[in-house]
Write a structure and sequence with these properties.
Layout: H1 2-13, E1 18-21, E2 24-28, H2 39-44, H3 57-71, E3 75-80, H4 87-101, H5 107-124, E4 125-126, E5 134-135, E6 138-145, E7 151-159, H6 164-167, H7 177-188, H8 213-219, H9 221-237, H10 241-257, E8 263-265, E9 273-275, H11 279-288, H12 293-301, E10 302-307, E11 310-315, H13 318-348, H14 352-355, E12 359-365, H15 377-407, H16 421-428, H17 434-442, H18 449-459, E13 465-466, E14 474-479, E15 482-487, H19 491-496, H20 501-508, H21 513-520, H22 535-541, H23 545-548, H24 556-560, H25 574-591, E16 593-600, H26 613-622, H27 625-634, E17 638-641, H28 642-649, H29 664-673, E18 680-681, E19 685-688, H30 692-765
Parallel strand pairs: 2-16, 3-12, 3-16
Antiparallel strand pairs: 1-2, 4-5, 6-7, 6-12, 8-9, 10-11, 13-14, 14-15, 17-19, 18-19
Helix pairs in contact: 3-4, 4-5, 5-7, 5-9, 5-13, 7-9, 10-11, 10-13, 12-20, 15-16, 15-25, 17-18, 20-21, 28-29
Length: 766
Amino acid sequence: QDTIIHQLQKRYADLQIYTYVGDILIALNPFQNLSIYSPQFSKLYHGVKRSSNPPHIFASADAAYQSMVTFSKDQCIIISGESGAGKTESAHLIVQHLTFLGKANNRTLREKILQVNPLVEAFGNACTAINDNSSRFGKYLEMMFTPTGAVMGAKISEYLLEKSRVIKQAVGEKNFHIFYYIYAGLYHQKKLSEYRLPDKKPPRYIDNETGKVMHDIVTKDSYGRQFEAIQHCFRIIGFTDEEVYSVYRILTGILNTGNIEFAAISSQHQTDKSEVPNPEALDNAAALLSIGSEELQEALTSHCVVTRGETIIRTNTVDKAADVRDAMSKALYGRLFSWIVNRINTLLQPDKNIAESGMNVGILDIFGFENFARNSFEQLCINIANEQIQFYFNQHIFALEQMEYQSEGIDATTVEYEDNRPLLDMFLQKPMGLLSLLDEESRFPQATDLTLVDKFEDNLRCKYFWRPKGVELSFGIQHYAGKVLYDASAFLEKNRDTLPADIVVVLRTSENKLLQQLFSSPLTKTGNLAQARARVTAASRSLPPQLSAGRIKVDTMEVMRHPEETTNMKRQTMASYFRYSLMDLLSKMVVGQPHFIRCIKPNDDREALMFSHERVLLQLRYTGILETVKIRQKGYSHRILFEEFVKRYYYLAFKAHETPLGSRENCLAILEKSKLDNWILGKTKVFLKYYHIEQLNLFLREVIGRVVVMQAYIKGWLGARRYKKVKDKRENSAITIQSAWRGYEARRKYKEIRNRRIDAAVHIQA
């Protein structure tokens, strides 16, 4: 480990932030702009040997691209690291290089793909205590290519947006970027009053303890510039002006909703009734969301309960009303974000007929491991997701490889690695895993966060879970990346994530087409908005089971307005969405051949050129880089079936027209001809080091290059011969035509002279 640290530190001091460990790229965050990403650099890293250029993220993108084109197999680039290590920037650079490599004739498509990241990040990223541009959702971007390697489309999948950030942020943190951008943009366009936004005191959802929010919005140029950039993104990707206008109205509607205040009314009969004493914010929010303000007030301050076919209206307490208001804001934002992603996917999807034969490169950019002063439900989800990615890395690099050595009878030294499977089981297994216990507790109306922690303590008896003395509402987890203490207050509330049916009903009456759509489309198992289909079917799909079963024929539109709808549907929790999201994400990743990029944070102060020995060593330890070095030195990261190997590389040792069998002997012949060393033949597979594949591909490219030259010469010669034949034929044809013409002309002249002579003779005779 000393060697690795020493090398990384030396290279970092020279601003060489990239280092290879075998075929894995380590990227240290430089915390400054480097000029190594220009088009000139893109040209350097295009189909060349890895060792001929310094390590670079473009080389990893190129490796994935070349593998995809050569082997016609989907690829997957997995970028991991803790929060602030540089994952999001790395993802941008990979997309940039892949669009360069897959140059489509369609220039507008390339521009659109490059605008996707900035747009979704404005809505999905925010400033946290340790990172100014932290991803608050998981993003899997699939770039689609034709079989010849031209980019033809893209698709994003988004997971687990941290919606709770809309309504409340921790000290020193901010709301999602878009709120500040849009506020500044509308301020400079003098449109604040049109969108009912104040110009003195900021709305509650973006206000913070410093009191400088408004000052920043007015004076910071960057916000205004970002707003223009976002407008540009919308335009380039293909959103209509009407859609963008609707998005702005919903966002400003959310900000106004946050300002609605409630007060208690005490009457003789009951004290738990609430009202909105100052209707200004209520009217503003209702106007922006194009709904009636009385209906909105009613939905916030009361709720319908259906018992035995009768509808009873119950009032909400002040706290309950505030919860409903916040739940509405979260739902609005979450569904709007989903809609934007779905819309981007529709606008960037390739044509149906070519999409079938294409291949993908997937890029995973997920929120990094987090450990704050106070960690809540969101941090737990983020850290479990990272735990799962780490498990996938271990499986791929260590477990599968060592299993194959055994089954193929190869003597390779086993490398010990930190297996986090038991920890993942503690979180995910049913029925006694942490998430299952959380869901179970969420079903009891009288459960509290304290009963939840007690339940954890009783059931999770393993070394990864502990409960600190003297702090009731907290528990600790020993993650792969270190110990984290979680504060369990509001865990149940966040997991239930309830949105009262009354609010849904009111929002469906909106005159804003987009808003109507957001609440008429059902949610998928991962908690995202389903891709829009015909409106009536979408509405009926979200009906309670007994209505959609078709026993009762009901006018769908009528039922949509009925408050009974959605109240007795099976409630989905955040934990179940999270579980499905993880499954969905893994199913996408498993399909492709993985390429790993490990982002490392050199220090916690975001200082350029500062290298903290302890921090880097800790990250190398818990990400398993040290073990990776061992397995890459001793192991064989490419394991190819004999048949596949011969099919791929037979050019190197056989004549092009031969079709050799996929036998051990033929593999041997190819390997010996290519003069490689350190390979092994198993029972059914060829075992190669990480650098062999590249060498073989280069040889193959060389041979194919020679074949191409030969073909070019032969084609040239054939062409010349064909041309000579045609030329000779043309000359012969010309002579034939000329002789025919001359004969005809001579006969004509002879006839003319003869006729003249006869005439003359007749003349003389007469």
